[in-house]
Amino acid sequence: MNRSRLTSLLVFTTWLAGCSTIGDWFAADTTAIPSPLPEVASAKGALQTAWSVSGGVGTDKQFLRLRPLIQGGQVMVANADGEVVAYDATSGGQLWRTATGTPISGGVGGGDGLVIVGSSKGEVVALDLKDGKEHWRTTLSGEILAPPRASGGVVVVRTLDGNVTALSATNGNRQWVFSRTVPVLTLRGVSAPLIVRDRVYVGLDSGQLVTLGLHDGHEIWEAAVAVPKGRSELERMVDIDADPVMFGGLLYVAAFQGRVVAVDPDSGQLSWSRAISTATGIGVDHDHVYISDDESVVWCLDRTSGSALWRQEALRNRDLTSPTPFGDGVVVGDLEGYLHSLSREDGHIIGRFSLEGKPILTAPVVQGATLYAVGSGGTIAALKQ
User: Where are the alpha helices (DSSP H) in the chain?
Assistant: First the structure.
């Protein structure tokens, strides 16, 4: 990972007794130079605008990854000033806009007919999917940097202080809290909880993946995705900030300075693992797992074995988002506001689209035959291939 970017993402949770100085950790700092914009090999993956609007306040200065939510034929986006806006997914027409009055930091989540956002003040705000009216709000123990998830009448929220909290989807009352100690030094981010049927899968800052019961919070199993190594706190960071992905009966998880693993969701047994470090996320299709690593090299692995099929290095150090499979390619966003489409077969670049001149911090989202991308400058676009 680019050292200057890594420094901006670090969170100190306690004061380090007995260490030398924080500056010593970065004494050998050399900021990596982004690769120049590579040529597009073909136009097979060209992206065309279906609609595009400006959502107002951007998020690049706060480095907030505010992912949109696609649900009920609507695209919901949030900005750092606390607004949540819903657009018609087909036309881009605005359907409703709600000012929550709290600085949104956790992106847009939802489920059970709710649109749910979290703030830097620890507030969880639940809005109605149809009109954006507020149903309830609750204050939790820490900053919220991942979208809340809801299913089966339960809202699950991950806070930066290591807590996983379940709330009633009806009124926001607390149902249970699962807590783990946060390491001294972590990345500024957390993975969003994944709810599948009656289980919640959560990646922890310790490199562990834990599975909890949705309705009572009891621990079902725990697996090590990464194990801390090295002498310094920086070397021992193994955060799971990438959201877990369930596909084809396996759970895919990745850790910073760790590995990418495929896990049996029932037992926690590893099916395969691959030593690749990432703090962004994972893309999965029927045959492949895609990863943007810490140097913005894009990897394609066989989904069932984990063997490497190809890797694309032409976008190195461009601070790529996690890859999103779409059409004939897999799409990543970069620090200059470009979306790049890479061939699923061999990784060569088959398309490019300029969203805006600001960094794209969050992976595009696909619904049907449309890809929705959000830039940190406030632009939202629906794209076709």
Answer: 3-9, 22-25
Beta carbons within 8 Å of 17's beta carbon, 6+ residues apart:
none
Q: First-to-last CA distance in the chain?
A: 31
Q: Quick count: other Cβ atoms within 10 Å of Cβ 157?
A: 26
* pTM for this prediction: 0.91
Q: Quickly tell me which residue has 């291939």 as its tokens.
A: 385
- What angle is formed at CA 10 by the lines to CA 12 and CA 150, rounded to 5 degrees? 95
State the Cα–Cα distance between residues 207 and 273, nearest whole angstrom: 14
Domain ranges, ordered by start, for the chain: 3-384
CB 206, CB 180: distance < 8 Å: yes
Nearest-angstrom CA–CA distance, 9 and 7: 5
Domain 3-384 CATH class label: mainly beta
Contact between 316 and 276 under an 8 Å Cβ cutoff? The reply is no
pLDDT tens digits, residue range 272-319?
999 999 999 899 999 999 999 999 999 999 999 999 999 999 999 999
Q: What is the DSSP string of 160-229?
A: TTSEEEEEETTT--EEEEEE-PPPSEEES--PPPEEETTEEEEE-TTSEEEEEETTT--EEEEEES----
Cβ atoms within 10 A of the Cβ of 70, count? 18
* Strands 185-187 and 174-179, bridge-based pairing: unpaired
152: left (phi over 0), alpha (psi -120 to 50) or beta: left
Residue with tokens 């289980």: 199
Q: How many CB atoms lie within 10 A of CB 32?
A: 16
